[in-house]
Amino acid sequence: MTAPVIEAFDVVKFLGTGASRVQALKGVSLSLAGGELTLLMGPSGSGKTTLLSVLGCILTPTDGTVHVLGKSTSGAGLGDLARFRRDHVGFVFQSYHLFPTLNALDNVRLALDVRGIEAQSAIIKARNVLSTVGLAHKLDAFPCELSGGEQQRVAIARALVGDGCAILADEPTGALDSENGHAVMTILARIAQDSSRGVLVVTHDPRLLPFATRIIHMEDGRICGEE
C-alpha cells in the first residue's frame, strides 16, 4: 500500500431541494491508496454511490474537501472537474454503459479519443488493454454479441486505458452470475496490485470479501466501521 490517490475530508453532501432535500453524506473522511482494493459496503440508501460520485468528481461536496493526488478539487469549475475525471479516474458501472453501435475496440478507444490521443496510438493501446482483460479475440464484437461478463471486461478495459490513478466501480458484479462475477473481481484485484492505482468497489455481495485489501462499512451517510 502506498500514498493516497484520492482522499475525502469531512465530506457532507445534500441531494434534492425543498421538502425532498436529504443529507446523503454526513462528514465522511476516507483515503484510497495505490496498491489496494477497497470494498465499500452497506445497505441501500447508506450513501455509498453518492460517496463514489463525490470521490470521482461527478458530484461536488456541499461541505468538506476532496483531494486527487494531493490536489484539492475545491473551487473547481465543471470543466476542471471534467479534466480531473478524464485524467485520474476510471469508472465501472453495474450496467456496463457501452455504446451499442461500437465494437469492443472502439468502445475502449473512445476513451482515448476524448483525450486527444492520435488514432493509431489509441488503437494499439486499446488492443493491448483488451488483451489484458482476456478479450484479444473479441475486438470486433459488438455489445449484443458479448456475454454480460465480457461486456463488463470491456467496461473495465475502458476504465483502465486512460491510466488514471483510481478505478471506481459501482456494483460491478451486480448483473453477473457467480462465475463471471469472480472473473471480473479477479481482474480488478490484479489491477489493484499496481502501487500507482487504487480500486474502490461498491458492493452488497459478501462473495467479494476475499478479494479485498480493506473493507469499509457505511450506514446512514457515515462510515461506521473498517476491517
Question: Can you tell me the residue ranges where pLDDT is under 50 for at least 5 consecutive residues?
Answer: none
How are the strands of the biggest sheet laid out side by side? 6-7-8-3-9-10
Helix content: 25-40%
Give a short account of the largest sheet. Answer: 6 strands, mixed
Order of helices and strands: EEEHEEHEHHHEHEEE
Percent range for β-strand residues? 25-35%
Q: What's the number of extended β-strand segments? A: 10
Structural class designation: alpha/beta
Look at the structure and give the mean pLDDT: 93
Note the total helix count: 6
Overall radius of gyration? 17 Å
Gross morphology: globular
Description:
By secondary structure, the protein is of the alpha/beta class. Helix content is about 30%, strand content about 30%. It has six helices and ten strands, in the order βββαββαβαααβαβββ. The strands form two sheets. Strands 6-7-8-3-9-10 form a six-stranded mixed beta sheet, sandwiched between helices. Strands 2-1-4-5 form a four-stranded antiparallel beta sheet, with helices on one face. A hairpin with a 2-residue loop joins strand 9 and strand 10. The longest helix has 14 residues. The protein starts with a strand and ends with a strand. The mean pLDDT is about 95.
Q: Short summary of the structure?
A:
The protein has 227 residues and is of the alpha/beta class. The protein is built from six helices and ten strands; from the N terminus they run βββαββαβαααβαβββ. The strands form two sheets. The protein has a six-stranded mixed beta sheet with strand order 6-7-8-3-9-10, with helices on both faces. A four-stranded antiparallel beta sheet has the order 2-1-4-5, with helices on one face.
